[in-house]
């Protein structure tokens, strides 16, 4: 058994502040941080994902439609949907992503 956290977990394989906290056959747990003004461009993933806003707020774009997300909000995005994040605030955004493999 191993306790995972942001200091001992592997970084995600793309250019954002993200860490893979857990992976098994059915799920992957990722922590993402976006600094003030930082964005994650709209993209598709070949899987469904749950997003939980740990702290901060941001605009989530899903298939071109914008949603204002804030701390403690949760949303499920399916594999057929484009998704992107924009931290349009002056504070850090922290998101917990649960990928459903």
Shape: globular
Uncertain stretches of 5 or more adjacent residues:
none
Main sheet properties:
5 strands, antiparallel
**Helix/strand order, N-terminal first:** EEEEEEEEE
What structural class should be given to the helix and strand makeup? mainly beta
Rg estimate, integer Å: 13 Å
User: What fraction of residues sit in β-strands?
Assistant: over 45%
Distance between the termini: 22 Å
The strand count comes to: 9
Order of strands across the main sheet = 1-2-9-4-7
Helix content: under 10%
- Assembly state of the chains shown: single chain
Mean pLDDT: 97
- The tally of helices reads 0
In short:
The chain has strands at residues 17-23, 27-34, 39-43, 48-55, 57-62, 65-70, 74-77, 83-86, 93-100. It is mainly beta and 101 residues long. It is globular and about 40 Å long.
Give the key terms.
mainly beta; 101 residues
Can you lay out the helices and strands and say which pair or pack?
Elements: E1 17-23, E2 27-34, E3 39-43, E4 48-55, E5 57-62, E6 65-70, E7 74-77, E8 83-86, E9 93-100
Antiparallel strand pairs: 1-2, 2-9, 3-8, 4-7, 4-9, 5-6, 5-8
Describe it:
- With 101 residues, this protein is mostly beta strands.
- It has a domain at 35-70 and 81-95.
- Helix content is 0%, strand content 55%.
- It has strands at 17-23, 27-34, 39-43, 48-55, 57-62, 65-70, 74-77, 83-86, 93-100.
- Strand 1 and strand 2 form a beta hairpin.
- The model has no long low-confidence stretch (mean pLDDT 97).
């Amino acid at each position: 058994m191993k306790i995972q956290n942001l200091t001992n977990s592997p970084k995600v394989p793309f250019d954002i502040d993200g860490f893979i906290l857990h992976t098994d056959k059915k799920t992957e747990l990722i922590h993402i941080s976006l600094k003030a003004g930082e964005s994650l461009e709209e993209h598709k993933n070949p899987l469904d994902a749950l997003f939980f806003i740990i702290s901060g707020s941001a605009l989530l774009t899903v298939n071109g439609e914008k949603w204002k997300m804030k701390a403690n909000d949760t949303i499920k995005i399916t594999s057929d949907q484009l998704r992107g994040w924009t931290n349009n605030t002056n504070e850090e955004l922290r998101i917990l992503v649960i990928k459903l493999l």
